[in-house]
């Protein structure tokens, strides 16, 4: 129990903060009707969370280095739980927006500490297995968010999206206290600007940042896939979410299997191949027409999922091997910020591409082709710039 209880605690935290990034999307119409709110405040309900996440990643990473990753992780879970309760009980859209901002503070603390907690709790082959399972949970959470949000909204209430966090977060806190050893931080340490700049002089670290940004941008095409499924094919939130299940399952299975061999396979190979498959999966989804159905993108979703499953655990392993231990919190903060930035920029850029089409179908085909090009470019970056022996045991 104690051996894998730590991984359960870490995975629960990742699951919570990632699902709340996407699950709220399908609940926005119900929230708008509940508060008679216009589109602008509803957009803030969604965006304030990711904006605070991105803004605080580096700060949270530095704080974790100073006070200890377990302590900051527990603090993040506490803040996230209180904010989830406030979201679920919000009497107005303004209160909901403020509570979502606080939820983002807790989410930032959770996001930047999970990598380090895996590193301090496991080593050798166990670390590889843990990274694989953790990556699988992350991929599953990102894809399952709309499904969970749709089910809760349709059959319970939009408030349940937030209230369901509370027992799960409390379980994660209990497991953290009972199964993860406390490791003291460097109390006198301040925000290490020079150390952060030093990280960007490491070629492999820069390559990892670029790959993270582009990978998140490619993953952003799922937003427009959801629009096509719901607005063009007229699928409900739950049905549209279920159409994305092949992506989630292929990610989960791949990450779990790859995690067992992470110590033997160069992360450069896994990262480059994962990005290559992500681009190929996007290309396979292009070519839809007015007669296409959800099954038309099935093959592309599976290939993309396999790519994500290769990429996520390998990125973590490469980061472990590239960055000095005393700068790991800041490095994870930078990495997570890069992914958030990639997702935000990806949605914006691909949104312009989507709107440039002669309709939803043409726009989505263009999105897939651009995402494919980005995936191939990121794959080349990974193959060329990440050192061959990073993260392997030889």
Overview of the structural elements:
It is built from 17 helices and no strands. It starts with a helix and ends in a 9-residue tail after the last helix. The chain folds into two domains: 1-177, MFS general substrate transporter like domains (Growth Hormone, Chain: A, Up-down Bundle), CATH 1.20.1250.20; 195-394, Up-down Bundle (Growth Hormone, Chain: A), CATH 1.20.1250.20. The protein has 394 residues and is mainly alpha-helical. Helix 11 runs antiparallel to helix 17 (360-385). Mean pLDDT is 83; it is low at 390-394. It has helices spanning 2-22, 28-35, 39-67, 69-88, 93-121, 124-155, 160-163, 165-179, 193-199, 203-219, 221-232, 237-243, 245-259, 267-285, 298-322, 328-355, 360-385. The chain is globular. The longest helix is centred in the middle third of the chain and has 32 residues, at 124-155.
What is the correct CATH architecture of the largest domain? Up-down Bundle
Uncertain regions spanning at least 5 consecutive residues? 390-394
* Rg estimate, integer Å: 20 Å
Structural class: mainly alpha
Describe the secondary-structure layout.
Blueprint: H1 2-22, H2 28-35, H3 39-67, H4 69-88, H5 93-121, H6 124-155, H7 160-163, H8 165-179, H9 193-199, H10 203-219, H11 221-232, H12 237-243, H13 245-259, H14 267-285, H15 298-322, H16 328-355, H17 360-385
Short description:
The protein has 394 residues and is an all-alpha fold.
């Amino acid at each position: 129990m104690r051996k894998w209880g730590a991984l359960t605690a870490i995975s629960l935290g990742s699951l919570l903060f990632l699902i709340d990034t996407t699950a709220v999307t399908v609940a926005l119409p119900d929230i708008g009707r509940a508060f008679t709110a216009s589109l602008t405040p509803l957009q803030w309900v969604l965006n304030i969370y990711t904006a605070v996440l991105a803004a605080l990643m580096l700060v949270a990473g530095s704080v974790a280095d100073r006070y200890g990753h377990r302590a900051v992780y527990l603090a993040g879970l506490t803040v996230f739980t209180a904010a989830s309760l406030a979201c679920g009980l919000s009497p107005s859209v303004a209160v909901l927006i403020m509570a979502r901002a606080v939820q983002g503070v807790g989410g930032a603390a959770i996001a930047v500490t999970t990598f380090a907690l895996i590193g301090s709790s496991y080593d050798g082959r166990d670390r590889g297995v843990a990274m694989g399972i953790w990556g699988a949970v992350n991929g599953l959470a990102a894809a399952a968010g709309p499904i969970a949000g749709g089910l809760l909204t349709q059959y319970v209430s939009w408030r349940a999206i937030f209230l369901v966090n509370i027992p799960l977060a409390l379980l994660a806190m209990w497991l953290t206290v009972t199964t993860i050893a406390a490791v003291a931080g460097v109390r006198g340490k301040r925000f290490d600007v020079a150390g952060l700049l030093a990280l960007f002089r490491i070629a492999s670290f820069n390559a990892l940042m670029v790959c993270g940004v582009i990978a998140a941008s490619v993953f952003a095409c799922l937003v427009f896939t959801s629009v096509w499924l719901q607005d063009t094919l007229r699928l409900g939130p739950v049905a549209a979410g279920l159409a994305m299940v092949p992506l989630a399952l292929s990610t989960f299975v791949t990450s779990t299997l790859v995690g067992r061999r992470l110590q033997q396979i160069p992360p450069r190979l896994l990262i480059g191949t994962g990005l290559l498959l992500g681009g190929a999966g996007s290309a396979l989804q292009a070519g839809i027409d007015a007669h296409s159905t959800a099954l038309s993108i099935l093959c592309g979703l599976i290939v993309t999922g396999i790519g994500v499953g290769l990429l996520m655990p390998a990125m973590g392993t490469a980061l472990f091997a590239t960055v000095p231990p005393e700068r790991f919190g800041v490095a994870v903060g930078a990495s997570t910020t890069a992914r958030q930035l990639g997702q935000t920029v990806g949605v914006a850029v691909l949104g312009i591409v989507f709107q440039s089409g002669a309709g939803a179908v043409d726009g989505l085909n263009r999105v897939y082709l651009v995402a494919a090009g980005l995936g191939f470019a990121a794959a080349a970056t990974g193959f060329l710039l990440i050192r061959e022996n990073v993260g392997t045991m030889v």
